[in-house]
Amino acid sequence: MRYELTGALYEDSSTTIGSIVMCIENTSIGIKQIGDSCLQSAPTLIHLNRNQSETSSSTSSSSATAISTPPALCFLDRIRQYFEGKIAVFTRLLRKDILHFHPQVGIIHKENIALLRTIQQLNPYIISWSNVNDYMSPMDFHSCARMISNPDTVHYLHSCNWPTCIFGTDIYDINELARGGIYQDGIQMCQYAQSILSGFVHETPPIGHFRTFCQLPLIRKFLDHYLHYFFAGQEDVHMGLIGVSPFIVPNPFLRSDTTIHFVISYGNTVQFGENSYDSYKSINT
After folding, report:
1. In this predicted model, what pLDDT tens digit does every residue of 194-227 receive, in sequence order?
2. Are residues 166 and 83 in the same domain?
3. Count of domains observed in the chain
4. Residue 78 belongs to domain spanning
5. 262: closest CA among 224, 217, 216?
6. 32 and 72: one domain?
7. Residue ranges, the chain, pLDDT below 50
8. 143 shares its domain with 263
9. Residue 142, C-beta contacts closer than 8 angstroms, at least 6 positions apart
10. CA angle at residue 30 from 25 to 34, to 5 degrees?
C-alpha cells in the first residue's frame, strides 16, 4: 500500500523507513529497524540460506551433462523479489477494479456504534486485528468483534503484551529456589530452536537476559491462564490456531518470542476442527 500511494518502498534520499527512536540505524544494510522495513513480513521460506550456486545434472543414454544454474539470490535480493512480486499482484488487482481500498480514520470502541456498523455492513469474512486486542479489555474487544461480525467472519489476532496480565510469566514471580532450573529449561529451549533454524540463519551462541530465557518455559506453562482470562464469559466463541501451537510464528523475525497467534469466530457457523485449541492441549499435555 505504501508503494502504491507514494511510489517508494526502499529507503533512499527521499524516504525514511523504520523507527529512529526505537533502534540504532544499521547503515550496513540500509534500514533502521528490522521489523519496520519489510523483513518482518517475509515468510520463513524467503530466509533460507541459499548463498551458493547450485548445479543440476541431466543424464541421457549417451552422456551426463552438468548444467550450471545462475548464482542463488542473496538475502536482501530475495526479500526484494518477494515483495515486488506481491506488489505487482496487488497493483494489478487495484487497476482492474477487483480490489478496493477504503481508508478510514476512527477509534474502535464499543461506543463508536457508527464505525462498527459500517464495518459490519461490509460483510467481512476475514478481519485482521494485529494486536489491537492488547489495548482493550477482553470484554470490550469481544463486544466490538461481535458487532462487526457476520456468521462466517473469522478474526485473526495476536498478543504481544499478554504476559503482563498473568502472574507467573516473569521469573521474579517464582520462588527463588526454582529459578535456576527454569533458567536451564529456557537455555535448552533456545538451543533447540537454534538447531531447527540451522541453515536458515547464521548460528551464534544464545545471548540474552536471564529474565528473557526464563520466560520461554514460563509463558508455555501459564498460557492457559491468559486464555481463560481473555475468553471469560464468552460461551459461543471458537478459537483456532495457525499451525499446531499459539507460539507458531509466520516468520523468523518477530519482535518477541512471547507473541501468541490465534483466530476466533463467534457462533457455530465457523469452527476449526483439528486446528482448534482443544487439539493443541491434547498434543501438549
Report:
1. 776 555 555 555 567 888 889 989 999 999 999 9
2. no
3. 2
4. 2-54+68-95
5. 224
6. yes
7. 13-27, 29-37, 50-64
8. yes
9. 234, 237
10. 65
